[in-house]
TrEMBL record:
Limits of the PAC domain: 87-139
Protein name: PAS domain S-box protein
Amino acid sequence: MRLGELNIELLKSDAKYRRLVGNLQGICSFVKCKGIVNYVTPSIKSLLGYLPEQVCEHRYDDFLADIPSQNKVKQRMEETLHGKQQTVFEAEVQHKDGSTRTFDITAVPINDESGKVASVEGVAHEITYKRWQRRHFNAIWRIRALLHRSCIFHWRTYRSQKSSP
């Protein structure tokens, strides 16, 4: 292949990548080893109300909701920044409007040629609604179980009263 053909292939590949990232339903980000956001996909605007340039060059934890449970999130992210592979974890993130959104975070440390952590690649999928659904579904099942037990109790009480002389 000639250089011109390689450039055309590279441009096509870049266009495919940009379409893929542009259609991503989550947020993809790169965080430098000091915890500074280096890159974030444009989808952050629709999910959290921020423009990418409002997030880049800020620490990742500047956008976490200010609640005590976030200390675990910070700990897991710091461990990832030091090279420890993590499982998916939940984080409460502050929307630009002040509300809180819940995300499943996948964070992977990326090493440079010398083996040191250069950055962390992360993908975040919003699960706020799914989490709300799960909580309400569980509550409905608990109520259903209570009603069921109550009906059985009343039925047995009724049957025992009816059979007594």
